[in-house]
Design brief:
The chain is mainly alpha-helical. The protein has a domain of about 100 residues. The chain contains 7 helices and no strands. The radius of gyration is 18 Å and the shape is flat. The termini are far apart.
């Protein structure tokens, strides 16, 4: 059996790929646990910064996986994490898409879609928790998140409007310490 940190990283990301319901960002808590806590490949700050950099850059949201791999092990780490996340999930997505299209009106398919919604929401909440752990003491950031969520839930404002408002507030430094 091959045992190297790079091979272990690839295998771990191959397995994670099959859990990516709602996108790769929902896997961030497990990536954090593995890369920061278990393997010590990255610090908390490096992990959070890698995701922030990738999310700010133009391109697909999955770029953060490549940045994490690069930060941890350079070009080969970037290749291992990216291939690990993309290959199984892409194959599974093609297969599920075909089945979903063939059975779109089936009761089991509707139940599956409805059942996955809470899973995706829970994974997104876990991701939010991990990425914002350092800010829980910042009441202003928490208040802004709660207000944004309430506005999206109770009005017809598109979520993109909340994202743009958050970017503007952050860009103007309105949440900086007084």
């Amino acid at each position: 059996m091959i045992h190297s940190p790079l091979f272990d990283l690839l295998i771990h990301f191959l397995m994670l790929s099959l859990l990516a319901t709602g996108g790769a960002i929902t896997l961030a808590p497990e990536m954090h646990r593995y890369m920061v806590t278990e393997m010590g490949l990255l610090s908390d700050a490096q992990f959070t910064a890698s995701i922030a950099i990738a999310q700010a850059a133009p391109g697909p949201n999955i770029l953060f996986v490549t940045v994490l791999g690069w930060q941890a092990m350079g070009p080969m780490g970037a290749l291992a994490t990216t291939a690990g996340v993309l290959i199984p999930s892409a194959g599974l997505a093609v297969m599920v898409s075909r089945i979903s299209h063939q059975h779109s009106d089936a009761a089991w398919m509707r139940a599956l879609r409805q059942g996955l919604a809470p899973v995706v929401i829970a994974l997104m909440l876990a991701t939010t928790w991990i990425l914002s752990e350092q800010w829980w003491g910042e009441f202003r950031v928490l208040a802004l998140a709660v207000i944004s969520a309430a506005l999206v839930a109770t009005t017809r404002l598109p979520p993109l409007a909340m994202i743009l408002a958050g970017a503007l507030i952050g860009g103007l430094g309105l949440l900086d310490s007084v």
